[in-house]
Amino acid sequence: MIILGIESSCDETGVALYDTEKGMLAAALHSQIDMHKLYGGVVPELASRDHIRRIIPLLDEVVEEAKISKKDIDAVAVTEGPGLAGALLVGTSVGYAIGMALNKPVIGVHHMEGHLFSCLLSGSKPDFPFVTLLVSGGHTQIMKVSAPGQYELLGETLDDAVGEAFDKTAQALGECYPGGPAVSRFAELGKSGVINLPRPLLHTDNLDFSFSGLKTAVMNTIRLAEDPNSPEFKHNLARAFVDSVTEVLVKKTIKALKKTGYKSLVVAGGVSANKQLREALTKACKKIGVKIFFPPLALCTDNGAMIAAAAAAHIKNMDHGEIDGFSIKPRWQLSGC
Ligand code: KG4
Ligand code: ZN
């Protein structure tokens, strides 16, 4: 079965064709980063307009790359939420229009469920049940996953998402949006322990996180620094930030694994591309005999293939009825969906 996956919830237009037997057939992506960079963050209206411009050419590109005809598409998967309302409307309108024109089912996918199933795109399949750590620009969650669609939230951020903290730290260090890769690069050059930052909620009993105070601590450290523009200072501060975030994420994830007794961990979302976090989680999981699964590096951030992969997990339950409208869900909880 060939599934067309469409992602347009934020600043990336992603379109992909995914074969439930053979895996990913073709993928195309347009990132709006260069456009939003000028403003220091995503401008929703510009995002929607750009999705409109890109989506059909990207669709034509994947169909050509996979050497299929549009008529060979068996189902359409589209991000229904959460995300920017205008941006979501572009992807869902196109997805449902294609479904209606081809008389094929359309499945609305939760964006974070897409991230969750992006690990299937690396070819390795975790056995259910497992624990997942979802870390992106908008979410930081630990969940118990019993089966596709059966999710129980164990803990989440009480304020900023970890990706947001990376972005704000990068901005404070004079780097462009999105800041995760820059902070990670700086941290590689810095020394641990030269600057100390707090480890928010590290010792609390629950599995919740908080990153907004850490961001403030970064700003205060910059304000009080003798030479905040020196590369050495910037590298050491990035190292301190990454050390703090990594320690908290690892500790709470391991706690969740011990609490559930599950033997597999799936880490996904844009921040799962982070080198230091990958290494620390891999080491910690090895120690307690837990198998760890990541998406391929290139598919950690938003893309269309992950949306198709998530739909594939639900394929048996897919509604093959007639399409009589569609909705978007800019705010949508994954647990209980
Ligand atoms: O999943 P994603 O593409 O979009 C959302 O669903 O939010 O995640 C984007 C986030 C951004 O905050 C970005 O800075 C972060 O992922 N990110 C990283 C890295 N690559 C992307 N954070 C840390 N290290 C990275 N290598
Ligand atoms: Zn995402």
Query: In CATH terms, what is the architecture of the largest domain?
Result: 2-Layer Sandwich
Oligomer: single chain
How many structural units, i.e. domains? 2
CATH top level of the largest domain is Alpha Beta
CATH superfamily of the largest domain: ATPase, nucleotide binding domain
Radius of gyration: 20 Å
Number of helices: 10
If you average the pLDDT, what whole number results? 95
What compounds are bound to the protein?
Answer: 5'-O-[(R)-(carboxyoxy)(hydroxy)phosphoryl]adenosine, zinc ion
β-strand percent reads 15-25%
Enumerate the spans where pLDDT stays under 50 for 5 or more consecutive residues: none
Written description of the protein model:
It is a single chain. The chain is of the alpha/beta class. The protein has 2 domains: about 1-115 and about 300-335, Nucleotidyltransferase, domain 5 (2-Layer Sandwich); about 125-295, Nucleotidyltransferase, domain 5 (2-Layer Sandwich), CATH 3.30.420. About 40% of the residues lie in helices and about 20% in strands. The protein has helices at about 35, 45-65, 85-100, 110-115, 160-170, 180-190, 210-225, 230-260, 275-285, 305-315; strands spanning about 1-5, 10-20, 25-30, 75-80, 105-110, 130-135, 140-145, 150-155, 265-270, 290-295. Strands 3-2-1-4-5 form a 5-stranded mixed β-sheet, sandwiched between helices. It has a 5-stranded mixed β-sheet with strand order 8-7-6-9-10, sandwiched between helices.
